[in-house]
Amino acid sequence: MTDNNSLLQFFAHYIESQLGIVYMEANYFQLEHRLKDIASQLGLSGIEELHQKARIGIEGQMKGLILDLATNNETSFFRDGSIFKALSEYMVPALCQTSPKNRLSLWSAASSSGQEAYSIAMELAELQAKNSATPGFSMLVSDISDTILKRAKEGKYSQLEIQRGLPAKLQEQYFEKLENDYWKVKSSLQSHMEFKKLNLLGDWGSIGPFDIIFVRNVLIYQSVENKKKVIAHMHEKLNPGGFLVLGAAESLFGLSDKFKQVAHNGAIIYQRL
Ligand SMILES: C[S@@+](CC[C@H](N)C(=O)[O-])C[C@H]1O[C@@H](n2cnc3c(N)ncnc32)[C@H](O)[C@@H]1O
Hints:
Blueprint: H1 4-19, H2 28-41, H3 47-56, H4 60-70, H5 82-98, E1 103-109, H6 115-130, E2 136-143, H7 146-154, E3 156-158, H8 159-163, H9 168-174, E4 175-177, E5 182-185, H10 187-190, E6 193-197, E7 210-214, H11 224-237, E8 238-245, E9 259-264, E10 267-272
Parallel strand pairs: 1-2, 1-7, 2-6, 7-8
Antiparallel strand pairs: 3-5, 4-5, 8-10, 9-10
Bound molecules: S-adenosylmethionine.
S-adenosylmethionine binds next to loops.
C-alpha cells in the first residue's frame, strides 16, 4: 500500500511535468482536497483508486480534471484597464505607422474563459467605429484547459461576470440577453476569433506570426527557465515591431533583452526589437 504523501507526490509531479506548476508540500492538503473531489466526480472511492487508475495512464476526462485543478482561471472584462487603452491609443497606431496592413493578427494566450479576448475585440471594434482607417483583426484565443476554452468559445456569461469590468454601453452593444440573467457575446465579435487548445510549455504547432500577443497572469506561476523559454518562443512568433503584453504584476526584467519597454498612461508594454 502506498502512503498518502507518495500518492500526492505522484500527482504533484504529474502536474509539474504537464504545466510547469509546482505544488509545494506545504500545499498538499489543498491538492488532496481537490483530488478527492475529482475521484468522486469520476465515481471512484477515493484518492487511492484514482492513483491506481492514474498509474495505468492519465487520459481523457481524468487528465482534464487534474489539469484544471492546478490552474487558476481568475479573469474579468477589461482587467487592468490601462492596457486596453494602450492597445487602441498606442499599439494599433504604432503598428499602422510602421507597417500599414489591412488586418492585424493577435493572440490571447492563456485566455481563460474569454473575457480578455472579448475585451480586446470590443476595444478594436470601438476603435474601428471611431476611425474607419483602423485595420481589421483576427485573433487566436488559446488556453490549456478544455473546460475553460469551451466556455470562452461559448461566450456566455452570468450577470455577475458581466458586472466585473464590462461597461453598460458595451454590454448593450456586443451582448444579447439570454434566459436566467445570462448574456451571450454577439457572433459579429466572435467571427474574428479562432479557439485552440494550446500548452504554452508544449508544441505550438504552426501559429502566427502575430502583431500583438497578450500573455497575462499565467507566466507568474512558472519557473524563470520556463518563463524565458515561452518569452523567447513568443519573440519568434511576433512580427518585427510587434507587441507583447504581460499582466500588471509581471515584467520582462531578467527574462529577455530583445524587447523595448514602453510606458503608456500607466500601462507597461513590450515592443519586439
Ligand atoms: C489567471 S488566468 C489568466 C487569464 C487572462 N489572461 C487574464 O489575465 O485575465 C490563467 C490561465 O492560464 C491557463 N494556463 C495555465 N497554465 C497554462 C499553460 N501551461 N499553457 C496554457 N495555458 C495555461 C489557465 O488554464 C488559466 O485559464
